Amino acid sequence: MRVPATNEEAGETAEGPRTIFGDLREGWTYVRQTRWLLASLLFGTVFVLLILGPLEVLLPFAIRDQLGGGPSDFGLVLAAFGIGGAAGALLISSRSLPRRYLTVMTLMWGVGSLPFVLLGFARDLWVMAVGAAVVGATGSAAMVIWGTLLQRRVPDRLRGRIASLDFFVSLLLMPLSMALAGPAGAVLGLTAVFIIAGVGPALVSLLVVYFGRMPSDEIAHPLDRSATPTAA
């Protein structure tokens, strides 16, 4: 499509030519001034740190030591995680998003991680599969809400920068999580690590909802454009 370029699209603003560092600074300033966004990004960093390492590194050992299982059992648990994720995303996207979208999103990630504890206790494959499926479902459903928020609540001119920052923050501690999972499992034991990985995000999510002032923010800024804001 041929559209006339604006000064901003051409890389200029009223103050003059834009620079990459100016763009980054503007994006970070917006995040810092937007409480729900900053709280969500910080929570995402903690979530990845706690969950990803045990899932990717320690789950095979849990299946081997607790179930006497092998690669096929590991594949089945990961498949349950993926199927749960697909089901959760389809379910949340097939209906109107909840009015308490910030709170629901954060608690889906946080409280929805509690079944992760089952992976450290289970002595049956189906129990592990159910726990993984629930974590996958709640995590993917929360991601659908998050993607909607970036589209609706972030200004058009900043959306690319905020999305980039989101990916950076989400992946920032992934290598560290994987590096720490093995030593943590050796020192604390697999069960303790899975308890921390499941309970930790749930506790942090409650703090994020409170300090992010999410209940009042989501009522003041409904995602349903036809709705009228009401007092918190």
Structure description:
It is a single chain. By secondary structure, the protein is mostly helical. A two-stranded antiparallel sheet has the order 1-2. It has ten helices and two strands, in the order E-E-H-H-H-H-H-H-H-H-H-H. The protein has helices at residues 20-33, 35-67, 71-93, 101-110, 118-121, 125-153, 159-172, 174-188, 190-211, 214-220, and strands at 12-13, 16-17. It is globular, with a radius of gyration of 20 Å. Helix content is 74%, strand content 2%. The longest helix has 33 residues, at 35-67. It has one domain (35-220): MFS general substrate transporter like domains (Growth Hormone, Chain: A, Up-down Bundle). A hairpin with a 2-residue loop joins strand 1 and strand 2.
Name the features.
single chain, 232 residues, mainly alpha, Growth Hormone, Chain: A, 10 helices, 2% strand, disordered C terminus
